[in-house]
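Re-run requested by the PI after the first attempt was lost when the workstation crashed. Everything re-entered from the original request form. Ligand of interest: pyridoxal-5'-phosphate.
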Amino acid sequence: MMLRIKLPPRTTAIIAVHLYGQPCDMGPLKDLAQIHDLKIIEDCAQAHGAEYHGQRVGTIGEIGTFSFYPGKNLGAYGDAGAIVTNDSSLAQRAKMIANHGRVAKYDHIMEGRNSRLDGLQAAILSVKLKHLDSWLEHRIQLSKAYLKGLKNIGDIVLPVINKDIRHVFHLFVIRTKYREALRAHLTAKNIETGIHYPIALPKLEAYHYMKQADAKMMANRLDNELLSLPIGEHLSREQVQEVISEIDQFFKLKSETIAIYNFHKN
Ligand SMILES: *Cc1c(COP(=O)(O)O)cnc(C)c1O
């Protein structure tokens, strides 16, 4: 498939965001990048360990960026992050920028900033890294249970997993027009849910200048239907089953309520 996109003038790079843990379709993006001589930066903040056609995300574009913010699939106990690249001069430059632009003590060759990874966070991450793959497998198993358990419930759009990829399910996001009511029902049953994200980027004040807040695009249309169900290495199969039955219960109650309403109306 060839992507047809109107590129803004002076475009130099594409940021591919592997949102929710599912890799972007990198093939067409790479073609596009090649034709227009663009770099690809992969945002892997939600996709540690995800794979596209057998290749780990972060190794496909020129640069891969990872977040180890506590809530991510691999999280430190405070802020942390990393970038990966195969380009040694880029790596060198990134290291310099992160360390006030210096190449040696007191020898600064450019203006940088401080984004050094704290040693304590690095130690915590080294310990957790060993468990990452089994945690990801657990997430994948839970997502399978969700997909199976929620398959026959109407009024829900389930995540679609693309072919030949490893989706690591940082988030398990469903879509429903009854988002607020379903969320309230789950909250009442002590089931915490999230919304990722409640305001589509074009509608954020920060991006008003792009004048796309009313543009007819998927993101703008769906931000009031998204609901993230509980998922994570801490969660058991039984707990996921409980969430599924509560969702099932909600939609049964809802259709009964509508049936009673129609009965009285007639
Ligand atoms: C969390 C996140 C970021 C930001 O990561 P920080 O560590 O807070 O800088 C960027 N992109 C995506 C997709 C994220 O989920």
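Saved to the shared folder this time. Residues 71 and 232 are 10 Å apart (CA to CA).
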